[in-house]
């Protein structure tokens, strides 16, 4: 086998390995980023766009749902998070309407 053939075979094998690793990596990344129904505390906080400490405060205040215990695991149901987040938006809209009414009354 001459040097040129050796280099060509070596490069082909190297490209095949890199492509295979990229494919496995992409599959793992997709699986890791697939949305699950039960989220851990940091995931639940990230899902609604706040820090974990603010999320804890919102749970304590009742603005966010309590977690579900699955044996020794604590998870937040994504559907409950959606409902609670929608309720926060409704609360905000109601507050804005009341403030607008108060302003109109004052003027």
Tell me briefly what this model is:
This protein has four helices and three strands. The protein has helices at residues 3-32, 41-48, 52-61, 78-106; strands spanning 38-39, 68-70, 73-77.
Structural write-up:
This protein is mainly α and 107 residues long. It folds into two domains: 1-34; 38-107, no CATH class. The chain is built from four helices and three strands, in the order αβααββα. It has a three-stranded antiparallel β-sheet. The longest helix has 30 residues, at 3-32. The N and C termini lie far apart (93 Å). The mean pLDDT is 80.
List the helices and strands and how they pair.
Elements: H1 3-32, E1 38-39, H2 41-48, H3 52-61, E2 68-70, E3 73-77, H4 78-106
Antiparallel strand pairs: 1-3, 2-3
Helix pairs in contact: 2-3
Defining traits:
4 helices; three-stranded antiparallel β-sheet; 107 residues; 72% helix; 2 domains; single chain; mainly alpha
H/E element order: HEHHEEH
Largest sheet: 3 strands, antiparallel
Count the strands?
Answer: 3
The structural class is mainly alpha
